[in-house]
User: Fold this.
Amino acid sequence: MIVGAGVSGLTVAYFLRRAGLGVTVLDTGDAPGGTMQTVIDGGWLVETGPNSALETTPLFGEMFDGLGIAGEQLYADPAADRRYILRDALLHPLPMSPAAFLTSSLWSVRGKLRLMKEPFVGRGAEEETVAQFVRRRLGEEFLDYAINPFVAGVYAGDPAALSVRAAFPKLYALEERYGGLVRGMVRGAGERRKRAEKAKDRARMFSFRAGMQTFPNALGRSLGDELRLKCTAASVERKTSPGGRPEFVVHYRRHGEPGSLEAPAAVLAVPAYIAESFVRPFSGSLAAALGRIFYPPVAEVFLGFPASAMGRPLDGFGFLIPAKEKRKILGTIWSSALFPGRAPAGHVALTTFVGGSRQPLLAGLDDGELAGTVVSELRSLMGVQGDPVYAKIIRWEKAIPQYGLGHLELVEEIRTLERNVPGLYLCGNYRGGIAVGDCLTSGEGLARRIAGEMRNQ
Ligand SMILES: Cc1cc2nc3c(=O)[nH]c(=O)nc-3n(C[C@H](O)[C@H](O)[C@H](O)COP(=O)(O)OP(=O)(O)OC[C@H]3O[C@@H](n4cnc5c(N)ncnc54)[C@H](O)[C@@H]3O)c2cc1C
Assistant:
């Protein structure tokens, strides 16, 4: 039994069924997908969570083929590789080649020279934040005008608060295993080729014709009646079956009515702040640690404009804003430039993120203030003219888990719980990575582990 039908829980369910095991999935929502939902309204297509995903693992293709949705997949326009970063109120393209790096206006000559020292920097001694690691290896300017906006784009986070080892394990491993980033990138590329994996900067970006929710919808359909929506789990209890085997009982409420479900194993695929209360009877200290994971609020402001209102070409993915630039938005995705069918003919769709760890209070502005703030920033940064003809605001009070210092100890504590309470498992984007591809890799790995343990019982 799985509690939570986000992409993590659904992936575990998919691979458990492939291993021949029966599985029931409960979710409090009225559709599968968790944060991954798509709203289609008139000619506008609004993503409530991920606007796209990176094809970092072959599991995507395997699952899309198995679910019969491979033909629905859309790859982003190749121009989407171009991303802009704001510096001194101007959008500068992020250089994608050594030649472009040398001529880029994004960093000063001094900043570029500092980057070239990277291969000669030694290893760090203790657990570092992303900011400490990048400052030490690459210098302050690269931290401010590359990593800071990147962390805002991925985690809606603050590099000074995230653990480099937990939040960017591949980056950290380049130093740990190879002694430096440049050296590691060269050697790591060869190793990835062998594993048929793709680096995040090489993987192709995709969505679906009808948006990202195509994927969880197909996963949900494949479960048939074994996906039980509008079921809010309230507690998890362990008892012993008449045959002496451990069993888990999940108590839930559906339309106000209590119900329960029993199974030999329970996978908690809910956010950490929900898992906290389910875990408390088994481990008070892990429950407290789960409750401490910070999920900053994010508001996603989707605005539609006539194409003629744009003050510049939408020739890329969009732009990200470094904290140093002191703006009121984190960045904007030029959604209609990435995939067709995101805006009615003659119009464009822009998705802007507000709040995050950097400015949590801004995410709480009321709808009018929020839309007004975004429009005024887009006017100033992109020369947008006039008012939007369409607006939709999606709010996440707890958006994305921040992997802070000590996060890996928490992950270790989860493993200890799973050893001490056989049959109870935790999964979700607070463990093993927040990107959709990470959730697939973690979910598939967990399903393999559960199938192995069930067979050995
Ligand atoms: C605004 C935003 C933008 C993002 N953009 C991207 C992106 O562009 N690319 C990318 O790769 N990733 C992106 N992500 C991250 C990615 O979408 C998530 O990490 C991933 O979808 C999380 O999946 P999950 O299943 O772990 O969690 P969730 O999607 O949170 O699923 C948890 C599920 O548990 C259910 N649940 C909660 N409580 C209960 C209960 N008591 N009983 C039963 N069910 C319950 C919820 O209804 C939900 O369905 C983004 C996330 C957000 C929020």
User: Anything to note?
Assistant: The domain at 296-396 is CATH 3.90.660.20 (Polyamine Oxidase; Chain A, domain 2). The chain has a mean pLDDT of 95. The two ends are 17 Å apart (CA to CA). The CA atoms of residues 36 and 49 lie 5 Å apart.
